[in-house]
Each structure stands twice: as structure tokens, then as C-alpha cells.
Amino acid sequence: MATAQTRTLARTMMAPAVIVLLLWMAVPLAMTIWFSFQNYSLINPLMTGFAGWANYEYVIGDPSFTQSLINTLILVGGVLLITVIGGIFLALLLDQPLWGQGLLRIVVISPFFVMPPVAALIWKNGFMHPGYGMLGHLWKFFGLQPVDWFNQYPLFSVVVIVAWQWLPFATLIFLTALQSLSEEQREAAEMDGANAINRFWYIIMPHMARSVTIVILIQTIFLLGIFAEIRVTTGGGPGYASTNIAFLVFRTGILSNDIGAGSAGGVVAVIIANIVAIFLMRAVGKNLDA
Amino acid sequence: MARNVSTPTKVGFTIAAWAVALLLFAPILWTLLTAFKTESEAIASSPTFLPQNFTLENFAAVQERSDYFKHAFNSIVVSVGSTLLGLIIGVPAAWAMAFAPTKRTKDILMWMLSTKMMPAVGVLIPIYLIFRDLRLLDTVHGLTIIMTLINLPIIIWMLYTYFKEIPVDILEAARMDGAELWNEIVHVLVPMAVPGIASTLLLNVILAWNEAFWTITLTSGRAGTLTAFISSFSSPQGLFLAKLSAASLLAIAPILLLGWFSQKQLVRGLTFGAVK
């Protein structure tokens, strides 16, 4: 049905989307790369000219970079671990015959709709505050000294908040996948005498493999860029204890006005994200025809 | 699920599931309750569950301090505006790719998705400088443009997966019946496309409403959305837990309601149609 006329029409219809996305992708990225090789500070206008690799040496050589990179990995890895394992258990539980399933889904998914700064602030003040937070009361109830979470375990606290936001998303996707598993398959396995553990490993897990991959990859995109949760709770501190790469670029480029070094950090962030993206494209691309 | 189980088993599962669900919901519930307490009750050393002196003054105080309505208005303009703009650009593109696919359609789709993977910090600095030079910093229309661009790939993907499911045969059948092009569009295509477009709209309003990188970095006072509004509460001042809870509740309530309606579409939209 693709005549020359419809092809021209189709191209015209796609043109605006392709053009704006091309501009959005190419122009700022080219500028970031350009700035990363320049001496450019908003505070010191005398600092100009070609910088070579100096900005990269400055950013990557600084101990804060290594720490931010490790923090980024802990943040992404920790949240993935909690949400994938927790999500599978929760989805299996919600898939059981029980009363109020529709309402349960709504209650469980709720944290996902809470905007990141709100999630961070209600955890910080309502739950993790050593004086009047819920956890503080709980610790006191058991005769323990309340924990000052954001000073003692800053990165762990951020992991908890972010995991709380993403656990519902993982659960909902796993649940959707579980419910598409055919009843006959399960019953057949049951009749063949497969016990619960065998059914889980040999019937349920292979069926879930695709959704697990998708959850890991999609969450990774978002988790690499965690920003607001850090900004409103710890501000990246104490020191650099809870600074990830995204927050480091913000600190260097916007807060310290060092455009050159900030841009170099941005380029590094793009490279890291691209490595992840290649895997994601493969996984999603494979599922595109299905 | 039509599995036959005994009633005690079902009771057990129900209790377990509700226990976990309420644990997850606890921070939201606690915020809801605290919002109606007085400040001294909110931070009392022996906490109360239900508000003892039910009060609405926290909401008044929040409006007074940070002008909730102005920020909420900005949030609505940016999220709805960017979604509509995204649909205007996205619907024709998705339509063309779904109904007149070429060999390159799949590559174009993947490329569009890849723009979503570019980390925001990678382009923050140039966007910040461009916005500064064009006087777009802290403006609602500047923010709307950015939000359109970051959500456009998701809009196109979602629409594409919905349009793909409209059977082409129906169009041909309508043509055989001698329907004119205009009739074909109004009576056959639009009714089939509307549900997909509506889900896309809903999910994207939610995503734009909760976006908290560009809204915080590109605005300060005038164009601040609710994410910026709530971030201004990050440094505690005096007695403030109840007010913070009231502000939080105001910021999330509208989208929580929308989200409950669209949770089914969420799976499909955010997984780019790979899980249905």
C-alpha cells in the first residue's frame, strides 16, 4: 500500500518530530563537548582559550569523581537489587487469590506517583528525623538510640527513598507479566507433581525473564540521573558521601560556575549512559516485533 | 484467577498482602494524617495516630508562605501544555510509522528512544547558558519546551504501539463500502485512536508533573512548578513538620488521583509496549 504519494505524506508527517529531536540531541551535546575542551568559568572571565584535556584531568583526577562514580554504582545497584527481588516477591503475593485485589494494586502503586522531592522530604522529616521521625519513635520504643540517618548513613538513606519510589513500578510490571502466564501451564505443572519451588524456577522465572530485563534497564536510565532526592536531603554530603555523577556535574558546573569542568563531567556521564543504553536497545529491540 | 483454594489460605494471603501494601503506603498515610495536626502535636515525643486537634491552618500557612496556587498553576500549564505540544508533533509521526512503515521505521524509533537515554546532566550546562542568553530562564514557556522534548520519545512510542493495533483491514473495508476519506477518518479512525491518545496524554501529564531535574534547575521564583515549591521546604524553619506535610499533600494529591486511573497504561507506556 506504500505508493510514492503515501511515502511523501508519511515523511512530511514525521519531519517535525525528527527535526526537533535531532536538534535537541545534537546541538546541546556538541556544545557540551566543545565547552569541555575550553577554559570557561562564569566567575573568572579572564580564564579563556583551549584547555586540551585539562578539564578531564581535573574532573577525573579529583577524588570526588571516584567517590561519585562508586556512589552512582551503589545507588543504581542497591536500588535495583531491592526493587527486583522485592518486586518479584510482592508480585507473587499479589497474584495469589485474595480479597480486594483492585484496591491493593492502587495502594501499592501509589509511591510511584509521588514526585521525587516530596518523597525525599517526607522520608527525611516524617520518618528518618532522629527527633520526631517515625523511625526515631520506633527505635525509642525498643529502647534504642534513634539513628541520625542522613549524617550516619547518607547514601543508604537515599537508596531507601529511591527504592521506595521504584518498588511499586517493578511490582506492577512483574504482576502484569505473571498474569499473562497461562493457567493451563501452571495446572499442568501442578498435575505433573512439580512442587512450588520447582514451579517458580522452571515455569514462572523463565516467563518473567523478559520483564525483569526491562525493569532493570528502564530503571537504570532513571537511576543514573537521580538528582532531586539528593538535592533536598543531603545536598550531596556530608562531604561527597552521597554525591553521584549527576549531582557532581551540577555542583561543578552550576554551583561552582566552572563550565569547562562541569561539561567534562557531563561528557563522562553521557559515555556511562551510552554503555548502558547499548544493552537496553538490544533488549527492547528484540521485543519490538513480538 | 480461578484457582480453587480453601478459605483460610485466602484469608492468610489477603492479610499478608494488605500488611505489605500498608507498609509501603505508610509514608503517604502518615503525611496525610500529619497535615491535619498542629505543629506541636506533629513533633510530640509520644506520637498520636489520628490528629487530636483537627486543623486546616497548615494549608493556609503554606499558601501564605509559598503561594501554592501560583506553583500549581505553573505545574498545570507546563505538564498539560507540553503534553499537548508533544501530541501535536507526535500523533502524525506515530501515525505515519504505524500505517506506512518503511525499512527504516524501526531504526528511527530506536533512535528516538535513544535520545531519552541521554542523561540530563550531559546537556544541562549548554541548555542553561542558551536559556540565560535567550532570557528563557525561569519562564513557563521555556520549561514547557524542554518538557515537550524530553517526553516526545515516550509519546511517539506509546502512540505507535497503540496505532499498530488498529487493523488496517477495517480501513479497506470502509473504502470498499464507498466511504469518503473524511468519513473514514471521523467514523472509523478517530474512535479507534482516541483511547490510545487519551492514555498517552494521561501518562505524560503525570511524568511532566513529577519531573524534578529541569523544573528545579531552570526555575527560581516566577515559573517555579510544584517540584520547586516543595524543594523550598528542604531547609526546616522552626516548627514545620505539619506544614511540610500539608505542602506535600497538596503537591501530590492531584497526580495521585490521575495515577490511580492510569496505572494500567503505565506498564505499557513506560516499557515501550514490551510488557502488556
Automatic annotation (TrEMBL), chain A:
<dbReference type="Pfam" id="PF00528">
    <property type="entry name" value="BPD_transp_1"/>
</dbReference>
<feature type="transmembrane region" description="Helical">
    <location>
        <begin position="12"/>
        <end position="37"/>
    </location>
</feature>
<keyword id="KW-1133">Transmembrane helix</keyword>
<keyword id="KW-0472">Membrane</keyword>
<dbReference type="InterPro" id="IPR000515">
    <property type="entry name" value="MetI-like"/>
</dbReference>
<dbReference type="InterPro" id="IPR035906">
    <property type="entry name" value="MetI-like_sf"/>
</dbReference>
<feature type="transmembrane region" description="Helical">
    <location>
        <begin position="155"/>
        <end position="178"/>
    </location>
</feature>
<comment type="similarity">
    <text>Belongs to the binding-protein-dependent transport system permease family.</text>
</comment>
<feature type="transmembrane region" description="Helical">
    <location>
        <begin position="103"/>
        <end position="123"/>
    </location>
</feature>
<keyword id="KW-0813">Transport</keyword>
<protein>
    <submittedName>
        <fullName>Sugar ABC transporter permease</fullName>
    </submittedName>
</protein>
<feature type="transmembrane region" description="Helical">
    <location>
        <begin position="259"/>
        <end position="281"/>
    </location>
</feature>
<feature type="transmembrane region" description="Helical">
    <location>
        <begin position="208"/>
        <end position="228"/>
    </location>
</feature>
<feature type="transmembrane region" description="Helical">
    <location>
        <begin position="73"/>
        <end position="94"/>
    </location>
</feature>
<feature type="domain" description="ABC transmembrane type-1">
    <location>
        <begin position="69"/>
        <end position="280"/>
    </location>
</feature>
<keyword id="KW-0812">Transmembrane</keyword>
<keyword id="KW-1003">Cell membrane</keyword>
UniProtKB/TrEMBL annotation, chain B:
<comment type="similarity">
    <text>Belongs to the binding-protein-dependent transport system permease family.</text>
</comment>
<feature type="transmembrane region" description="Helical">
    <location>
        <begin position="76"/>
        <end position="96"/>
    </location>
</feature>
<feature type="transmembrane region" description="Helical">
    <location>
        <begin position="240"/>
        <end position="261"/>
    </location>
</feature>
<protein>
    <submittedName>
        <fullName>Carbohydrate ABC transporter permease</fullName>
    </submittedName>
</protein>
<keyword id="KW-0472">Membrane</keyword>
<feature type="transmembrane region" description="Helical">
    <location>
        <begin position="143"/>
        <end position="163"/>
    </location>
</feature>
<keyword id="KW-1133">Transmembrane helix</keyword>
<feature type="transmembrane region" description="Helical">
    <location>
        <begin position="184"/>
        <end position="206"/>
    </location>
</feature>
<dbReference type="InterPro" id="IPR050901">
    <property type="entry name" value="BP-dep_ABC_trans_perm"/>
</dbReference>
<dbReference type="InterPro" id="IPR035906">
    <property type="entry name" value="MetI-like_sf"/>
</dbReference>
<keyword id="KW-0812">Transmembrane</keyword>
<feature type="transmembrane region" description="Helical">
    <location>
        <begin position="212"/>
        <end position="233"/>
    </location>
</feature>
<keyword id="KW-0813">Transport</keyword>
<dbReference type="Pfam" id="PF00528">
    <property type="entry name" value="BPD_transp_1"/>
</dbReference>
<feature type="transmembrane region" description="Helical">
    <location>
        <begin position="12"/>
        <end position="33"/>
    </location>
</feature>
<dbReference type="InterPro" id="IPR000515">
    <property type="entry name" value="MetI-like"/>
</dbReference>
<feature type="transmembrane region" description="Helical">
    <location>
        <begin position="108"/>
        <end position="131"/>
    </location>
</feature>
<keyword id="KW-1003">Cell membrane</keyword>
<feature type="domain" description="ABC transmembrane type-1">
    <location>
        <begin position="72"/>
        <end position="262"/>
    </location>
</feature>
